Each structure stands twice: as structure tokens, then as C-alpha cells.
Automatic annotation (TrEMBL):
InterPro entries: GlcG_carb_metab_protein, PduO/GlcC-like, PduO/GlcC-like_sf
SUPFAM superfamilies to which the protein is assigned, alphabetical: GlcG-like (SSF143744)
Protein name, as recorded: Heme-binding protein
Family matches, as Pfam families: HbpS-like (PF03928)
Superkingdom of origin organism: Bacteria
Amino acid sequence: MRTRAVLTDEDVTKVADAAIAHARANEWNVTIAIVDDGGHLLYLRRLDGAPAISSEVAPGKARTAALGRRESRVYEEVIRQGRTAFLSVPLTAMLEGGVPIVVNGDVVGAVGVSGVKSDQDAAIAQAGIKALNLD
């Protein structure tokens, strides 16, 4: 039988705290979502001033990254390159800003961020994941 890592409550707190710190350091008002490997919501935080829609988009980006096993920007790029049929995939936020959390080659969850430019959303997610010291 094979065993694999899972996100703990402590892991989620570390990721969330680091993501919030990065967002606040840059004065970015965002929503941060963290999901498990099945895309189920473990954490959601809408910072003051974040757009209301971001609380729907951030979990969607996280879910897309977790279920798709890759950054959500990959799907955005595929669609932008003309493969519009990909819009039929049952994922709700195929936009940059969802980043999978990978441990020993396994996706154990993902972080989704929404509220600023897409590359800034992704940077916040990556800053959160970095707190787990997985490198």
C-alpha cells in the first residue's frame, strides 16, 4: 500500500498566514482560498477591500489547480491559444492564480487567489505555499 502526504490544519494555517502577509506587504486586497486534493474548501479569507466576486473566483481557481494537477494559468493559456472547446471542461475558474501544492510528486491541495492582476494572484499563492518549505 502506498501512503502519501495530506494537508493538515497546521499546514493550511502556515500557507494562509504567509499568503496574507505577502498580500498585505504589497497592499493587495484579495481573497485567498485553500482546498484539499479533491478541490474541497479548507480555508477562505476575503481581506478588507477585496472585490465581492473574488470570494467566488478564488475557490474556483484553487479547485481548478487541485483537480487539474497544474497551475490554473495553463488552462487559460490553452483557451487563449484558440482551443475554445476546452471551455466545456467542468472547471469554473480557468484563470491564472490557482497553484497546486505538490508533495513528493503528489498534489495534496491548492491555493487560489483573486482580487489583483493574475500574476500577482499567483505570486500570493506561491508565497503561501513556500511557507511549507517543500523545496
